[in-house]
Design brief:
By secondary structure, the chain is mainly α. The chain has helices spanning about 5-35, 40-60, 70-100, 110-140, 145-170, 175-190, 190-195, 205-210, 215-230, 240-260.
Length: about 270
């Protein structure tokens, strides 16, 4: 009986937050895509076009992949999750400014806005990845070995990037424009470091140990294992990934709590 009151309040708060996040996602859909020709379809088409162009160019070039893996599939499962990484981080600096009117409602918090935007991006990229790999499977006969494991890898990237996005949003207390100018080029410079277009087994053991210090490389290895299975080697530690996700989110929450009073919204 003693737990009934706190539990019911927790459930009510959870329902309220779910409703708030759902409403923000619908608002984000409308403001980002609803006024354009194809509307909400652009949410899925945008990552698909970019991923197919990059994967197609590498496939047409005729350069074989180590281990004989399908180059089109390799770059689809590399660039599409990287698009999620880049999208979440690049949008984080302007997220609070773009939704400033919402904060007049006391039920809406900074974290609600970031969570809604990041969930939207993660859902769009996951859907786009499924469609592209299904199309590639029909054309080439190369189907994902374990789609569920691949989806888990994508969601781990989303969760990790959510934590980093909290840190970026907190940094806007020192100026959103300055943060954007730093984050945008960094996401491009980090392309070779994320693990999107490289496999750990390509390198000698000493380089592998150094590369595996980067948590995103583990996440891309999980995604590639979901696509190619045991056809090639995969190196990752699920415990290291989960610890990295937890640390990024805890640090992000602490930073947001410290910076929220200093974030100026116009």
């Amino acid at each position: 009986m003693g737990l009934a009151g706190p539990l019911s309040r927790f459930i009510a708060a959870l329902r309220l937050q779910s409703t708030v996040i759902g409403a923000i996602m619908l608002r984000e859909l409308h403001t980002r895509f609803g006024r354009h020709n194809l509307g909400y379809v652009w949410l899925f088409i945008e990552p698909m076009i970019l991923a197919f162009c990059i994967a197609g160019l590498h496939n047409i070039s005729g350069h074989g992949m180590p281990g004989g893996v399908d180059p089109l599939a390799f770059y689809i499962v590399g660039y599409t999750p990287y698009y999620l990484f880049r999208s979440i981080l690049n949008r984080a600096a302007g997220a609070l400014q773009a939704n400033a009117p919402l904060f007049y409602h006391r039920q809406v918090s900074f974290i609600d806005v970031l969570m809604a935007r990041n969930l939207l991006d993660a859902g769009a990229v996951l859907f786009a990845l499924i469609i592209m790999l299904a199309g590639n499977g029909v054309v080439t006969g190369e189907w994902p070995d374990d789609p569920v494991w691949m989806a888990i890898g994508v969601m781990l990237i989303a969760l990790f990037c959510h934590g980093v996005s909290l840190l970026i949003a907190a940094a806007t207390a020192w100026g959103a424009e300055a943060v954007e100018r730093v984050v945008h080029p960094l996401t491009y410079l980090m392309i070779p470091l994320t693990g999107a277009f490289i496999a750990v087994w390509w390198f000698p053991p000493a380089v592998q140990e150094l590369a595996l210090l980067n948590p995103t490389i583990h996440m891309f290895e999980i995604i590639r294992e979901g696509q190619f299975g045991v056809a090639v080697q995969h190196h990752y530690s699920l415990g290291y990934v989960l610890a990295s996700v937890a640390i990024a989110n805890v640090m992000g929450l602490i930073a947001m709590r410290a910076a929220r009073r200093h974030i100026a919204l116009q």
